[in-house]
Amino acid sequence: xxxxxxxxxxxxxxTPISDLLQRQLSALSGWEKQWLSFLQEWYNQNDYxxxxxxxxxxxxxxxxLNKDFVAxxxxxxxxxxxxKKGDCILHCLPTKYIAGKLMVVRALLGKLDLHLVDxxxxxxxxxxxxxxxxxxxxxxxxxxxxxxxxxxxxxxxxFLLIGGSAVQQSLIDQLQEVQTQCYSSYAMTxxxxxxxxxxxxxxxxxxxxxxxxxxxxxxSLDNCLEIFMPGLKQQPLKTNDLAELADEKTxxxxxxxxxxxxxxxxxxxxxxxERKLEPFISIAFYFSSLPHETLGQQLxxxxxxxxDENLIHQIRTICSQQLSTYEQPKQIRFIKVFQRxxxxxxxxxxx
Length: 351
Fold this sequence. Notes:
23% of the residues lie in helices and 32% in strands. It is of the alpha/beta class. The protein has two domains: 7-213, ANL, N-terminal domain (Rossmann fold, 3-Layer(aba) Sandwich); 260-335, ANL, C-terminal domain (GMP Synthetase, Chain A, domain 3).
C-alpha cells in the first residue's frame, strides 16, 4: 500500500502533493490550515501522526498513531463502502480530530476526489454535486434536515457516516424518510476512527454495531467492551462503554461505565434512561446526580434552557409515564447552555 502518493484529486482537479505542501498557511482560513497542516504531517519523516482526543470524558490528551495503523483503518472504510478511484467524497469535518484526518487519508489511498468545505457549511451546494460518501456529526445532519423540505429526502449523497456523538432517536426517526444510506459509527481516537458500523435507515436497519474486517470484541468482567484489532499496541483495548454482545463481531452500547449512578444501592445508566425519554422530549437534556444522605446519590434531570414551570410539569408527566418508580428524577434543573465538544458531545463531567 502506497501511503504517500504524489498527487491527490482535490476539488475535481488532479493536484501535485508538492504544490499543496508549499502553500503558505498564513494565507488560509482556520479550517483550511487544519487540513493542510495534517497533510504536511502525513508527508513528514515520522512514522506516526499526533492526534488529540475530544475531552468529552476527561482531560483532552495527545496520542501517537502509527501511519500504517491509520492507513489500515482508511482502507477498511474504502472497502466497506465500495469506494472506487475517482469517487467524490465530501470532507466537512474539522481536520484537527481523527475523523477529519481519516477523510484525507481515504482520499489519498483510494485516489478519491476530495471536496473540502468549511465544517460550518449550510450544505446548500449539495443539489449541484453528487457525492459517494461523507462523514458528519449529528449537528451537521440536523442542518441537512433544514434544507428545502421538497428536496431534503435526496441529499445527492449515497453514503453518510454519522459519528462524534450519540445519534438521538428523534434524528433516527427522521432519517427513515431519507434516501441516503446512513450509518452510525462506533469509534475511538485510539482505534483511528470506527471499528464497527450500524445501519440507521432503510434496508438492514439495525440496533447492533457490526465490526469491520479483522476486528472482534469481547466483554470485560465489568461488562465493558474490549477491542481486538491488528496494530493495537495493547490487546485487548478496554473501553469504558458498557455493552451487550450478540457474538464476537456484533454488539450494542448501553452507556458509559464512568457515568453510572448508584442510588439507593441500584445502578442506573444515564444513557439508557435518556433513550427512554428521547422520543418525547425535543430539547436537550441528560441525567446526572447529586449527593444524598440516605441514597448516596439521587437522580436528577438537567435540561438545557431557561427554567420554566410549565416545562417542568410536562417533563414530570413524561417521566411518570415512561420511567419506573425508581427511575424518576428527584429534581429537574436547568442550565442555559450545555458545554459541548466540537463534535457535539455534552461535557457531562464539566457540567
